[in-house]
Amino acid sequence: MDFEKKIGIETLEGLLDQMDYYQILGVGRTASQAEIKHGYHAASREFHPDNFTSINDDALFARIVAIAKRINEAYVVLRDFHLRKKYDVLLALPEPQCKLRLPDEEEQKKPVVEEPIKNPQASRLFKQAVLDVKAGRTSQAMNGLKLALAFEPGNAAIQKLLDTIIAQQQ
User: Fold this and answer.
1) pLDDT tens for residues 59-88?
2) Beta-carbon neighbour count of residue 95 at 10 Å?
């Protein structure tokens, strides 16, 4: 393996936690299912661990495996219509809540992350709306967010999540 390829693998593995699933597959956020499938196959061919069995560097091979796992994770989420919708909503959350990875079952059981909303009723409604979105209850989430805006009008975080859900409904 040439030096540039090795550096490329090390760099990519180091950036995985800063990349969303679309970036990992090399497609845009409006990509069709065919484009997602093509992106997955291209990335998978390039970073499949079977292509690197002759490498004697265990640390480098572990990086390749990490990249391959994230490629597979991205494809599993983006190829499924419902998971993709949930993921897109998570990506649209304001910065502290924005998630680049869809939480696994264990992480979904954790309480919703802290919220920069000042009004306690608005904060409670926002947190419930996030849980409703994750559970696929978008109409309840929209109603809760509209009510949260009544308690804290003009809050950008609440409005952004509501706008994202409305856009996903269309």
Assistant:
1) 899 999 999 999 999 999 999 998 999 899
2) 7
Which residues form the domain of 160?
A: 97-169
- Local structure of residue 16 (DSSP, 8 states): G
Q: Confirm whether 91 is domain-assigned.
A: no
Indicate the pTM of the whole model. 0.60
Among the candidates 18, 44, 79, a domain finishes at 79
- Which uninterrupted H or E stretch holds 105? helix 105-108
Q: Work out the average pLDDT over 100-126.
A: 65
Q: What is the CATH number of the domain that holds 64?
A: 1.10.287.110
Residue-wise pLDDT for 35-56, tens only, equals 999 999 999 999 999 988 888 8
Residue 107 above 60 pLDDT? no
Q: Measuring CA to CA, which residue among 82, 62, 67, 81 is closest to residue 23?
A: 67
For the chain, the domain total comes to 2
Residue 123 lies in a domain: yes
Q: How many residues does the chain have?
A: 170
Q: Is 37 exposed, middle or buried (0-12, 13-18, 19+ CB in 10 A)?
A: middle
Last residue of a domain, one of 79, 106, 133: 79
